[in-house]
Amino acid sequence: QVQLVESGGGLMQAGGSLRLSCAASGFDFSSSPMTWVRQAPGGGLEWVSGVNSGGDTTAYSESVKGRFVIARDNTRNALYLQMRNLKPEDTAVYFCAKSESGWSSGIYPGTWPRGQGTQVVVLS
User: Fold this and answer.
1) What HEC string does 87-122 produce?
2) Rounded Cα gap, residues 72 and 80, in angstroms
3) How far apart are CA 39 and CA 44, in angstroms?
């Protein structure tokens, strides 16, 4: 059974940094691409970033490119999202998702399993 547990969210001032973590279990993590998606208040799920199974290829949405860095540690079954220069529009619940082909497409299909999320609030 796929289990994904996000952590690291919090309340930050604009311009600050946060590092989100995702602990994965119940599947072969090292063989699975992974993505981060987010859901802003009142909004839908938005694809943020993805990484291939080996961790050497990444993709980002235009809204976070240059500010966020996705990384993974296959020895720890862990996924990370380092967020810098946070903006109020980054306020959202952030989810990690076990992904499939198309992980870099910029689209989260909704069928990929995801965790419960971690809340990020950025104050202006």
Assistant:
1) CHHHCEEEEEEECCCCCCCCCCCCCCCECCCEEEEE
2) 6
3) 6
Q: What is the mean pLDDT of residues 68-78?
A: 98
83 three-class SS: strand
Residue 109 clears pLDDT 90, i.e. is over it? no
Question: SS3 of 30, please?
Answer: helix
Which pLDDT does position 116 carry in this prediction?
97
**Which among 83, 60, 82 is positioned nearest to 73, based on CA atoms?**
82
Q: Residue type at 100?
A: E
User: Backbone phi, then psi, for 43, in 5-degree steps?
Assistant: -110, 180
pLDDT band at residue 6 under the 50/70/90 scheme: very high
